């Protein structure tokens, strides 16, 4: 039987590095507190005013009102409480299904909202 004089710690260090990487990645998503949306790019220079209401659509088509998930029905209820002068910003992931975006615009148009910005990346 062969006697070992030392312990091989390389596999242990590898596991610790993987765990450290996972912790660092998840902590950056938590610290930012934003939705990871990949919005379309544009060449225009126009700056956008701050809006009262921010609505986002992620890649899967989920609606978010001020970074909180919301159903279409609950969004309709919330829109009833707002005036027609309310300023909206729509963040839509470029990989989101187009019909979700059109449905959202149609909902806002039906309620006579006219101050709508579509957020893009320059």
Reconstruct the topology from this structure:
Blueprint: H1 10-32, E1 53-57, E2 63-65, E3 68-69, H2 72-80, E4 87-92, H3 98-110, E5 115-118
Parallel strand pairs: 1-4, 4-5
Antiparallel strand pairs: 1-2, 2-3
Task: Offer a few descriptive terms.
single chain; 122 residues; 3 helices; elongated; Nucleotidyltransferase, domain 5; 5-stranded mixed β-sheet; alpha/beta
Protein model, in words:
With 122 residues, the chain is α/β, with parallel strands linked by helices. The chain has a domain at 53-118: Nucleotidyltransferase, domain 5. The protein has three helices and five strands, in the order αβββαβαβ. The chain has a five-stranded mixed β-sheet, with no helix packed on it. The longest helix is centred in the N-terminal third of the chain and has 23 residues, at 10-32. The protein is elongated. The model has no long low-confidence stretch (mean pLDDT 81).
């Amino acid at each position: 039987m062969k006697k070992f004089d030392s312990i091989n710690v390389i596999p242990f260090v590898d596991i610790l590095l993987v765990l450290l990487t996972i912790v660092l990645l998840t902590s950056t998503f938590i610290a930012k507190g934003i939705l990871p949306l990949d919005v379309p790019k544009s060449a225009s220079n126009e700056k956008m005013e701050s809006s009262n209401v921010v609505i986002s659509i992620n890649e899967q088509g989920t609606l978010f009102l001020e970074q909180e998930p919301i159903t279409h029905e609950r969004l309709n209820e919330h829109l009833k409480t707002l005036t027609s002068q309310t300023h909206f910003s729509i963040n839509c992931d470029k990989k989101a299904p187009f019909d979700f975006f059109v449905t959202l615009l149609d909902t806002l148009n039906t309620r006579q909202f006219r101050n709508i910005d579509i957020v893009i990346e320059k």
